[in-house]
Structures are given as C-alpha cells and as structure tokens.
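Table S2 (text version). Query chain:
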Amino acid sequence: MADIAQDIPVVRQAPPPRSTRALGWLRVHLFSSVFNSILTLLAVGLLAAAVPPLVRWALIDAIWSAPNGQACHAGGACWAFIGEKMRFILFGRYPADQEWRPIAVVAIFIAMIAAACVRPLWGRRLAVVWFAGLSAAFLLMAGGLPGLRPVETGLWSGLPLTLILAVIAMLFGFPLGVLLALGRRSRLPAVRGICVGYIELVRGVPLITVLFMASLMLPLFLPAGVTIDKVLRAQVAFILFAAAYLAEVVRGGLQAIPKGQIEAADALGLSYLQRTRLIVLPQALAMVIPPLVNTFIGMFKDTSLVLIVSLFDLLGATEFALTDSNWQGFAVEADVFIAAIYWSFCFFMSRYSQLLEREFNRGKQR
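Corresponding structure-token output:
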C-alpha cells in the first residue's frame, strides 16, 4: 500500500485567491447576492444623507465658547454648555471647593476595575485591593477625618454616585446571586422554597418598585427616631435586585454542567463544598460570561432610575444642569455627552467579557 501511494502523482494546485483584498472582501461581505447588494447601496445612501449634516452640526457649525449661552442658538451644537456645566454634570451638588475628592474617587474606581482585569492579581491580593479602594472611596466622599470636611450623602451625585451604586451592586449582588442559584437547586425543600420565592418575587416587579419600597415605604415601618441613609437604602435595593437576576443566569450555567462531572467528583470523595467550589462553579460561570456581563451592563445603566427617589446620579445631575435659565434648550448636547460616558464603560465591560470568554474556552476550541 505504501508503494502504491508513492506512485500516485501529486498534482500541484494554485492556492485559492485571497479574499482579504479590498475587492474580494467587498464581494464576499457586501455584494454576495442581489439582496445584499441592494441593502449595501441603501446603507451607503443613508450614510451619505445623514453623516454630512451630523458632522456639520457637531463640528463645523458648533459653538465652543458662549458666555451665558447667549450665542448658542446659531444652529450648530452648543458644546459651550458642556464646558460650562462639566463640573456639575460629573459631580453634581458636591461642594465645589472639595471637587478633588470625587475626582479621586472616580480614579480609585477606575484603578480597581483595571486591577480586576489583571489575572495574576485574582485572589486574596485583589480582595485586599478592592477592600482598600472601597474604604478610601467612602472616606473621601463622606469625610469626617482630619482635613476632610464632612459631606452628607444627600450631596453625593454625578458620576461618583453612579459608580458607587453600580459597582457595589455588582460586587455584593454576584455572590448573593450565586448562593440563591445554589439554593434553588438544593435538595432541601425549605431552602429551595425560600430561594425560589425570593427570586420570583424580585424578578416579578420593576426596579422602580424596589426603589420606592426601599426609599419611601421602608421608613414608614421603622421605629420612631430610627432612620436609614437614603443612599444606603437605594444601594441595598440595587444589590437585592441584581442578585435575583444574577441567580437565574448562574442557575442556567449550573444546569449546563454534565451530570458525569458531578458523579466523577462524588467518586473522588469530594464534599459538596469542594465539588461546588472546585468543579461545578468554575465551569458554570465560564459558560455564562456573556449573560453575566449583560446583567452588569444593565445594572450600570439602571442607576439612572435613582432620580425618582431624589438622588442625582450622572443623568440626574445633567437634567438638573439643564434647568439653568441661561442654558436651556441644549438637552441633545447634554445627552450626547453622558451617552459617551455610559458607552465607554459599557463598551469596556463588553470587550473584556469577550476576552475572558476566549480565555476560558481556549481548551474547548478545535
């Protein structure tokens, strides 16, 4: 057989034409059929009609400097409003003479998020970094230490409040969601019933309802003279709401674990905690990275709902800035600015989740 195989002539064939060249890429991706060609031409026509006016409004005819907004009604974008109200949009009603403190808090949160993206730091070192960062952020925002003037939480607003509500909700809601997911799959009827009841109750109502209950209804049930900080009530509401949604995401990953993995762990003599921590949870969480990050992004954007309970996050501070009589009518510019901030954080989370997904699924790729 080897001799016969050696006698068969090998016909040399030219390599297939490269489709990565410009014309080849256009033919494959944009003009592969009549229908795709029509869609491509329509999209090009739409862009040709929409992009030039947008560029003219945002850049060419834009107003970059206008005292008191008097010269900002010439037809172009009034970016002078953003320059004038930048401090208030980002930091809201926080005392202007203490502006360096919320700036430092935003820098701390960005540094903690960056540290969480470094794989060698995962573990106890990352926990220490986050504990120190959250403690420093809280002390800077609240003050009360020598050299730091006390600032009540009612004045916390803008981007720092958005980051505090979102990041802490994700940080504490995730482990609570994991426990709820494990409890829902428990063999103990009481534990399973409590977890199912909590998850279905919280997921069955909108977040606005939870915020109303935490901020307006809860004080009515407290004893006379007992009060709970408004920001703390809203924060707990976000944590509880996020945990219910994360629990269902994690439960989907737990159900996707093959039964043979659990049987193999039992055969090795592992306890329930060892089996869950070492075998089940790592695989389950790796499977549900996209929906987990989708929930995180949703919670980050949902922080704008705290405006209904008189807390001024990034969106609330922007809306309040638009009430200035000298700068009314520039809501589009303000919305574009804060949309860019929201998009930057959400895009980072999305891209990093894709990186994690490729990293954890590397052994499964063929």
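Notes on Table S2: The chain has three domains: 24-61, 76-94+154-359, 95-150. The mean pLDDT is 86.
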